[in-house]
Amino acid sequence: MNAQSTAVGWAVVGTGTVSHAVASDLRHVEGARRAAVWSRDVRKAHAFAQQQQFDRAYVSFDQLIAAPDVDIVYLATPHATHTPFALAALDAGKHVLVEKPIGVDAAEARTIARAARANKRFAMEGMWMRFSPAYIALRAEVASGALGDISSVRATFGLPFGAKDSPAWSADRGSSTLLDQAIYTVTLARDILGEPAGIVSNATTREDGVDLSLHATLLFDGGRFAQLAASMVTYIDPTASISGTNGWATLAAPFWATDRFRRHSGDFGDAFDAPVDRVFPQEGHGYVPMLRAVQVAVTAGLTEHPLHPLTDSIAVMDVLDRIRSSWLPATSI
User: Fold this and answer.
1) Do 254 and 203 belong together in one domain?
2) How does residue 2 score in pLDDT terms, banded at 50, 70 and 90?
């Protein structure tokens, strides 16, 4: 760690809504020091630093990653900027936590992984779902056979985040429902069923190529399947379920950040009349377990976290690339 303090110095790059939630949750991580924040807009940078009690604000990214008291850089900028910012931070000797998606495609994810290994620095995609106590417990129950042999997964995430012609969404920024919302559905499907053997998918896109809504069926060996859907312009029930030969479990909305799930299992009577509810306390906005895990890993000298290694991020990006390439002639609006 830095010579100035035994605390771990965190820097936040980007001052959007997610950055505010992450910065707030850092207050609950013992030993985390809110060192610096960066934004292209000097007023936003200083306002963020004041509101979230960071030591200082930068309008020069190069100055931020040169600061000796910054150990971990959390990147929450537009998708298209994740890779250049991550590479610069890693080359400057910083550890990085990159808000999902880690890049716009699998090639970028592999580039970041190579840079992290070359610089012997920690790098991880900010897939907070994987660190959620509820999600960890659900995966453990599935692995224990509580639902029997798993046959299918359903995961959907549709929330209207703004007007479909919003300038905030652009191809230049890497805007994408596939990368923003569907990444959670694919991560869940892959965690439960493994690597898909086939994919059938379609999407609705804008004229500039930004995908606004999509649905996909992932096909797995043995007749298993996952039904996925995502949208940034309309509601699609933001829950998920896992089904098997002995029952099913449902992750409550929003499934990617839930604190609970319900398991229905056993014979018909028990499955319908005696479900088991599992509820877990949520720390802060839900990012605390991930942030704590990253800090512990960095302090221990790890360059990846075993709960979400770079190989898994790359594998998910490979599936997202396959979904995109499988789209039928897109419906544009």
Assistant:
1) yes
2) very low
